[in-house]
Every structure is written in C-alpha cells, then in structure tokens.
Amino acid sequence: MIKKSRTQISRIKPTQMVGAFKKNPPAQAKTLVEEYYFGLLIHSSGKIQDIYITHDYVTFSFHDKDGVLISANFDKPLNSELSIFKKGDNISVVGKIFNVGENIVVLNHCKLFEYYKEKQEKDSKEGWYQKWWGILILGVIASALVATLFYFL
User: Fold this and answer.
1) Out of 13, 56, 78, 100, which residue is the most buried by the measure of CB atoms under 10 Å away?
2) Per-residue model confidence as pLDDT tens digits over 80-125
3) Which domain holds residue 70?
4) Residue 90: CATH number of its domain
5) Kind of pairing between the strands at 69-75 and 104-112
C-alpha cells in the first residue's frame, strides 16, 4: 500500500492514476484511486487552456506532458502571483489529489510550484527547536527541571 504523505510531493504521475480506468471496470477503478491516491500531493505542469474564477476558487485547466487533463483549483483570494497568468502560459503547480476520472485529475488547494518549493526549503532550514514538536520537547524538559528543583528544595 502507498504511504500517504500530506507534506511531501508524491512521485505518482497522473498517467498512473488514469491508467486504473483503462485496466479496471469504472467502479473498481474509482475505488482503487480513492484508496491509494486521494489526498496525496503531486506536482504537474502544462500550458493553460482554460481559467475559471468562482467565488470560492480559481481553476487552471491544462494537459500535462502525457496528455492527461489537470484541473488545478487554487483557494481564493486570488493573489497577485495568479493574476498574471493567461491562456497559453505555462504553469507548474503542486496540489492535493481530489478526484480522478478516465482522463482527468482534479487537484485542490494548489500552490504554484515555485512558492511551494521556497516554503519547503525555508521549513527545512528551521532548527528543530523552532518546530512545534521541538517547542513541545523543550517545554517538557523545562517542566521536568522545575519539578526536580522543587522536589529537592
């Protein structure tokens, strides 16, 4: 079984996901992709074919290099990085797999790949004591020291 990582980009390709529909009956394929792929982060890129703007999100549709249609949904508000894109521009995104069909992969909560990569690099440069679990460990150690001091005094 594939281990689902919520923070690292999966190596799964859209062609692998839509391939399940070519090898299995539709209902079985849908179950397989839901079990193994939904929620994983993937990276995809292509030339923008359509842009849809609704009150909840902005969607860029494009075909990846293997011809799979990608529908990348960005949460609103529309930021300045997204507002520069138009049909025909190349886009590179990272998003969570939300739905898969016979020739389409829908990604939610997308980020531009460049910004995702910068955030990952910044997060990896933080010291362990700056992460939530590092602060928790330091808090436990401090509490133990205070308790020990009061015990012996």
Assistant:
1) 100
2) 678 788 899 999 999 999 999 999 999 999 988 876 555 555 555 5
3) 14-125
4) 2.40.50.140
5) parallel
